Structures are given as structure tokens and as C-alpha cells.
Amino acid sequence: MVKGQEELVFLPLGGVGEIGMNAALYGFGPEKGRKWIMVDCGMGFAGEEQMPGVDLMFPDLSFIEERRKDLLGIFITHAHEDHIGAISELWPRLKAPVYATRFAKNLLETRRLSEPGAPKVELREVKPGRRVTVGPFELEYVPVSHSIPESNAIAIRTAAGLVLHTGDWKIDPTPVAGSVTSPEAFTALGDEGVLAIVCDSTNVVREGFSPSEKTVAETLKTLIADAPHRVAVTTFASNVARIRAVAEAAAACGREVIAVGRAMDRVIDVARECGYLDGLPEFRRSDSWKSLPRERVVALLTGSQGEPRAALARVSRRDHPDISLTAGDQVIFSSRAIPGNERDVGSIINDLIEQGVEVITDRTDLVHVSGHPRRDEMVEMYRWTRPGTAVPVHGEALHLDEHARFARAQGVQNVVKARNGSLIRLSPGRPEVIDHVKSGRLFKDGDVLIDEKDRAIPERRKLMQAGLVSVAIAIDEDGVVLGEPAVDIIGLPNRGRSGEPLIETVVDAVSRTLSGMSRGKLKDSESVEKTVDRAVRTAVNEVWGKKPACHVQVVEV
């Protein structure tokens, strides 16, 4: 490489080696003077077991925060939370214009930027097929099929060549709502010459073509028409095609639709505003549920991923103020559990079945299809675009590795395996990883953001496993223990293996330890805390088999 030579680089900071938190950077220029754009800025959902007390995760954007004066814009491929969900939280650290289509822009404004304290993000609307120029980049939004309207690949043009960032996509000639993935549009890009494709890997391990949304719509129409009583359908609130399919199925058999859940209401409002629900009657409010005959109602519910505060979970627990189900009613899961959510979804299904409700999932009926391409669809994309280089993204290690083998089998000359933080030079020269930069995760903990090094999360995991013993000891300046130590146990069983009260085990361990220490040692608070901590943990382990966390505080009087 010639020092100071202009380079085109790709740097993922989220979504590569994991599902969710998508955030990718493209840089152009000499190393010391690169200009940058970001594609997507998404969030992920934290599992309670792995991240106790944390609901949301965001990519660590420290690298570009330090270079934000050179960040020219943030370009959104589509409005799923794993692509837009971090904007309201992280945008104040970047303060670059955000470009999105009308639907994504309106949904972002409605869902995230309407919350109290949300930043005043600079949003700029982009029309698919139009080109936007920022600095050395020219970007073109290319419509694709996906499970939300106005999804787009982005063709990124620079003096070094054209890079195609596919975003999330599939091939669906009958998507119900939204765009089709046009062979002509992508073949034209291939004819222009695609330097590199940065492509979705989610379903590369699955053979064939993904079924069409139209097929799901037909299944839903049959199920709803044949149902003898109430029907409730749960799906991703963002899936406007599925919402439309349910509404059309309901109308065909004289049923009314009731939409339940704030997320559902927001998407429906934006979808109507953008014309995706044209021709359908207004949906009813949830308080209409009990007044409508059982055979004349369909509910659209949030909570397809088992979220405990969503409408479906509340219905399954029988504590929703308006919606209730009885034996003979039907619930259709027009969704698939995201990895990590299976237990919560299964719990809701079991609760419903115990109530005599019939539950229908994609295990028995075609009530859900993925929005991502299977192998035969990817064959078509590679045939259309004929890229010189492939960089697999949007997937876990299994998906990325399989995608790399797949791309080589399609005759792609260069395949670069990336992970979050991999700085990849796409041009000039042979594409390769040239550096690794800081990347990682940030956690939304209450109203603050913490990073992976914060002690809160590992300490909470420890408390989940073995509880906490708290000991407070008063010692005067002569090394005399005053009164009885205050002892409490939290999250420990009441009794040990032989039936002895654990609180007594702790009290005895503290008393023995203090009695065995000289006045000189008792004057050393730090030494007392460490010695008592060690003694308590050992004593509890002997009768319980676990070592709890222990907090010892010496009060000097």
C-alpha cells in the first residue's frame, strides 16, 4: 500500500457474529483522512439469565464516536428494531443526519423519538430508487422484499467501486405489503460491476426458497374462516403484511378486528398513513371485545416473543383488562420464537392450552414465513450481482461460516470472514482484514448505559446463583466488638442439608471468627472484613454446597 492512498473500508460494529444490534461503517479516503457513513443502528434484547436486570443491548460505537466529525450520515435499511432501535439512545453521541424511507422515518418518530426525553434527531427522508450523495459516497436505495414495508438494499458507490449492502431481504413475488426484490434492478448492478457484496446470512443453512407471504395469508384466511369461536393472532407488530392478511381474512368471513398493544397501534397508525392498509375498515378498540359475538371477532395481539408485559402474556395469565379467552377459542402464533425466547413463548402456550384454548403454530400450519433468504434465493442474488468479493454479515458464527463456503461455491473470488471490530480493506488490492478496533456491547440498565466491563452484571449473576449474606460489625478504637453483629441472608434457603437454620450458621461463623482475632487485628477494619467474609462463605458452603456473595461492613466507633 502507498502511504496516504485512498482506501475503501468496511467496519462492522454490530450484527456480525450475533443476531441483532446491526451497525456497519463504510469509510473512504486515506487512513488519516477517511470520511465515514453508517448503515443501520440497531439494538438487541438481553436474556434475563445472561444479563439480569437488563432489557436492551446496543453496539459499542466508541470507534466512530471518536471520529464523529467525519461521520457524514446514518442510513437505515428498514424499520426493524435490530436496525433502528439504538438511534434514540446513541444518536446524541454521533449527531449525524439519519436517512430513512417514509415508513421507517415515521415509525422511528412514532415509536422511539416520541418518548419523553428523546433526542431531536435530524431525520431526512429517502425515496427508493433515488441517489443521495454525501461526501465521497453516492448511495442508492434498492427495494427488496422483507417482513416489513420499505426494506432496501443500499448500493454504495465511491471512486473505488460499488459495494452492495443487502440489508435483510428475501425473494417474494407476492409479498402482500411492501416491495418485491427485482431481478432486473440487481442484474443492472451486476452489469455495472459489484466490487463487494455485504450480505444477509440468517437462513443460509436452509435449502430452497422461503415461502411467500401470500401463502401465509391464504392459510390464515382458512383458519379464521373455520374457527367456531374467537380468534386471536399474535405476530411481530412490525409485520404489516401479516396485519393486512389477518384483516382481509377477518373481513372475508364477517369478523371485526381488534388491535391490542401499543406497539401494534403505532405500526397500524404509520401503515395507514403510508397507505399499506388502504381499503380496510378501521380496527376496533380492545374494550369492544366483550360486546362482540364470539364468532365475529379477531384480535391482533402483541407478545409473540413471550414478552411478559405484552398483551398475549397478560391474556394467558388472565389479567388483561379487556381481552379474555375461554375454552374453544383459538390463538394463532403467526411468528417464530427468536432464539433465547423459546422458554417464555412455551410458557404462554402451555398456559393457554391449560385453559382449553386451541393453539396453532408453524409446527402444524404455514402461519409464518421468514423474511430472510434461503440458499436458492442467495444463489439468485449472487447470479444477478456477480460480486468480486463477499463479506457475510447478519448472523452467528455458524451462519457466517456456512455463508463463506456458499459464496466460494458460487465462484466468488474473494471471501472475507468478518466479526464485529474487523476493519476490512475492500479496495485497492486484495480485500482483507487489516486491523481490529474496539467493539462490544452496551447495556441499558434502568436509565443509564453501562459497558461490558461494568461490575454490575457479573455481580448480579453471582447473586442469582448463590444469594447474599450481609454482616455489619461495630468495633471501637481499642479493638473491642460492640454489641452483636447484625446479620441478614438474602436468596439463601432457610436451612442447610442437615436441617440447621442457615442464619444460625452465619451468626456462629461470625462470632467464632471475631472471638479468635486479637485486639490488634480487630483494629484493622480491612483485615476483619476479609477474614469474616472468608469464614462465612466457607461455613455456608459446608452446610449448603454453595458459596454466597458476602458483604461485610465494619463500623468504626
Describe the protein's architecture and organization:
Keywords: Exonuclease, Hydrolase, Metal-binding, Nuclease, RNA-binding, Zinc. It holds the Pfam family RMMBL. This is MBL fold metallo-hydrolase. InterPro entries: Metallo-B-lactamas, RibonucZ/Hydroxyglut_hydro, RMMBL, RNase_J_2, RNase_J_b_CASP, RNase_J_C. This protein is an alpha/beta fold and 557 residues long. A hairpin with a 2-residue loop joins β23 and β24. The protein is globular. The mean pLDDT is 93.
**What is the arithmetic mean of pLDDT?**
93
Unreliable sequence segments: none
State the major sheet: 8 strands, mixed
Number of strands: 27
Gross geometry: globular
Approximately how much beta-strand content do the residues carry?
Answer: 25-35%
Helix content: 25-40%
The N- and C-terminal alpha carbons lie at a distance of 69 Å
For the biggest β-sheet, the strand order reads 8-7-6-3-2-1-21-22
The Rg value, from CA coordinates, equals 28 Å
Keywords: Exonuclease, Hydrolase, Metal-binding, Nuclease, RNA-binding, Zinc
Protein name: MBL fold metallo-hydrolase
InterPro entries: Metallo-B-lactamas, RibonucZ/Hydroxyglut_hydro, RMMBL, RNase_J_2, RNase_J_b_CASP, RNase_J_C
Task: Break the fold down into its secondary structure elements and pairings.
Elements: E1 7-14, E2 23-29, E3 35-39, E4 44-45, E5 56-59, H1 62-65, E6 71-75, H2 81-84, H3 87-90, E7 98-100, H4 102-111, E8 123-125, E9 131-134, E10 137-143, E11 152-158, E12 161-165, H5 183-192, E13 194-200, H6 213-226, E14 231-234, H7 240-252, E15 256-260, H8 262-273, E16 297-301, H9 311-316, E17 330-333, H10 342-354, E18 358-360, H11 375-385, E19 389-393, H12 397-409, E20 414-415, E21 422-427, E22 432-436, E23 441-445, E24 448-451, H13 456-466, E25 468-475, E26 481-490, H14 502-515, H15 519-522, H16 525-544, E27 549-556
Parallel strand pairs: 3-6, 6-7, 7-8, 12-13, 13-19, 14-16, 14-17, 15-16, 17-18, 19-20, 25-27
Antiparallel strand pairs: 1-2, 1-21, 2-3, 4-5, 5-23, 9-10, 10-11, 11-12, 21-22, 23-24, 25-26
Helix pairs in contact: 4-8, 5-11, 6-7, 14-16
